[in-house]
Write a structure and sequence with these properties.
Layout (H helix, E strand, L loop, with lengths): L3 H4 L6 H15 L1 H4 L1 H7 L5 H15 L2 H14 L5 H15 L14 H11 L4 H10 L4 H16 L3 H7 L1 H21 L9 H24 L3 H37 L4
């Protein structure tokens, strides 16, 4: 069975459809296959290249609270009023803000934003510099376009299933698949301490929880061909954004390397 059947008008059993979406992510996500990430995982990048990547990655991660809050709004606007489902989105917002600030949370950890800023400090990027980049939107053009793309998905999607397909099913699921790769790479190849890279361990664990709600909603509500086609297109849009974003980072790293050796024309 191929997921392409959906685009030809076939409605798949929703459980099978979700399994095929997972395969799309496993087979096509940039963080699993882009040469830049493969070099990062193997410790082949310079620390300067890691800094370039971290700065641009911050351009995406810094939006997480806003994007996840928008999902809670879109959930109601899509006609889904189950408080149990709403609570799951609230729990995601709690994890992004920081479980440490909410009683009864699963783990007493800081928010993902604070953890990434700590990681930035550990590789020589001051928190104030990352926050300046965010305020001034001082990122590579491909990162700016990615930010616009994610905001467009968050604020203009017509249905919550499109939002969760391009984010929870795509991004958070890929974090689940790659969190350990990042953690081990930064620990084993770049000499960072576990405390400095807690972001990647926590992101991998929390996003296992985050991705589940995406697939749960798709399995429960994507029961028509129209919705399945929209979900598939949204997921592929998310995948495309990550490839374009990573291409931009790789080009910038190559440019800086040539400048360093004085060979840039």
């Amino acid at each position: 069975m191929s997921v392409e059947a959906v685009l030809s008008g076939k409605t798949l059993p929703t459980k099978d459809f979700c399994a095929l979406l997972m395969e799309e992510v496993k087979n096509r996500h940039a963080r699993l296959y882009h040469p830049f990430y493969l070099d990062l995982y193997e410790g082949k990048l310079s620390i300067e290249a890691v800094r370039i990547w971290a700065r641009e990655a911050w351009g995406i991660f810094s939006y997480n609270v806003a994007i996840n809050t928008a999902k809670l709004v879109r959930c109601q606007l899509s006609g889904i009023h189950d408080p149990a489902i709403h609570k799951k989105f609230v729990d995601i917002i709690h994890s992004e803000v920081g479980y440490a600030y909410f009683e009864g949370s699963p783990r007493p950890v800081l928010g993902h934003r604070a953890l990434f800023l700590r990681f930035g400090e550990s590789i020589g990027i001051a928190a104030q510099e990352l926050e300046r980049c965010e305020i001034e939107e001082d990122f590579l053009p491909t990162t700016v376009l990615a930010r616009v793309g994610w905001l467009d998905i968050a604020l203009r999607s017509n249905h919550i299933l499109e939002q969760v397909a391009s984010t929870n099913c795509c991004n958070e699921f890929s974090n689940q698949l790659t969190g350990g790769k990042f953690f081990r790479a930064f620990r084993d190849h770049y000499g960072l301490k576990p405390h400095d890279i807690e972001f990647f361990a926590e992101h991998g664990e929390a996003d296992t929880e985050h991705s589940n709600i995406g697939y749960e909603l798709v399995e429960e509500f994507a029961t028509t061909n129209e919705l399945q086609a929209r979900v598939l297109k949204a997921l592929r849009k998310g995948l495309s954004i990550w490839w374009a974003l990573t291409d931009g980072v790789a080009r910038e790293c190559e440019k800086q390397k040539k400048l360093e050796y004085g060979v840039l024309e």
